[in-house]
Amino acid sequence: MKIKDIMKKDFISVKEDDLIEKVLDIMRESKVNSLPVVDSSGLLTGIVVKADIFRFMIQPGHYDSCPVDWVMSKKVLTVSPETGIKEAARKILDNHIIAMPVMDNDKLVGMISIEELLSYYIENDNS
User: pTM above the 0.85 mark?
Assistant: First the structure.
């Protein structure tokens, strides 16, 4: 099986200048812990993770009215739709991350997170 078989295709992305408050609302409503960040052309520029937002906000002078660009990770690990599920799981584990954008060439086509990987392994457990 490939990532394309289990990735979240109905993902939400946010813009670099969206306020952290808005991003947290989207995460809460969508029940996700990470979101891809895109520029005005829709190109991937980063990923924002709820834990990083909380770490940012506990520092004096950092508020939820700051743009997500201030807290997002700009070095983003990605996978392609053709990546094997085990390979993607290993990449997430080895890099201590919770999610990765799925890219088909330069186009953002999905998201894969720990949740999708765990669901796959639970559903396909033969023990």
Answer: yes
